[in-house]
Specification:
Blueprint: H1 10-229, H2 232-247, H3 258-300
Length: 301
Amino acid sequence: MPKKPVLVTLEEFEELKTQLQGRIDGVLKELRTKVPGCEDRIAELQIAKTKLAQDVEVAITATKRVGDDAQATTTNMVGELDSRLSAKVADLLAQLQHSDEALTRDLTTSEGETRKLLADELTALCERLDQELSLVRREMAESMERAAGDIRAEMQKLSASLSANIAESQQRSLDNASGLKAYREHTDAVLHREQKARTLEEERVKVAEADIWMRLDRLSELVQEADANKDLLHVSAIGCAIHCFDSSGSKCFMSMEPKAMEEVRVTTGEMDHKITQAANVVLLVSDASVGLHQTSSFEWC
C-alpha cells in the first residue's frame, strides 16, 4: 500500500537537508578515527591465520600418525580378541556339550523317576476309583432294589385295580350284551311283524288291483259292445252286466224299455267315471305301497 506524501515547505526541506548532512559528516569523522585500529586488527588476524594454518598442518600430520598407530593397534587388538574369543567359544562349546550330555543323563533319569512316580500315582488313583465305584455300585444296587420293591408294590396295586376294573367292565359288557340281545330280539320281532303286515297289505292291494283291473276290462268290453250295436238287447245286456257288477256275479238278464236304456247309458257313464276314479285311487295306493315298501327296506338296511 503506497504511503501518503508528506507536504513540507521549502524552508523545512532545507532545514532537514542540513541536519542530514551534519549527521553524515559526523559519521565519516568517526569512521576516520576508527580505521587505523581496524587495519591493526586485520594485520593481527592475518598473522593468526598464518599460525593457524601451520597448526592445522601439524595437527593433520599428527592425526594421520595417530590414525596409523591406532589402526595398527586396533588390528593387533582385534587379532588378540579374535584369538581369545575363539578360545572362549571353543571352551564354551565344550562346556555346553558336557552340560548337554549331563542334562540328557539327568533327563533320562528324571524321566524314569517321573514315569515311576506317575505310575504310582495312577495306581493309587485307580485303587481309589475302584473303591469309589464299588461304593457307588453298592448304593445303586440298594437303590435299585428299593425302587424295584416299590415298583412291584405299585404294580401289584395297579394289577389289582386293573383286574377289578376289567371284571367290572366285563360285567357291564355282559349286561350291555344281554340288554342289546333283548333289544335286538324285540327289534327283530317288531320288524318281522311289520314285514308280515306289509306283505299281507301288499298281497291284499295286489288282489284288489287285479280284481279292479279285471272288472274294468269287462266293463270296457261291455261299453264297446253297447256303442257298436245300439240295440235294446245289448243295452239290456249292459244293464244286466252292470247289475251283475253291482251284485258281484249274478247272471240274470231282463228286458228294458227305451227310457230304461237311456238311464242305463247315463248310469254307465257315471260308472265309467267312478271306475276311472277308483283306478286312479288304486294306482295311488299301489304307488304308496311301493314307496312304503322301499322306505321300510331302507330302514331295515
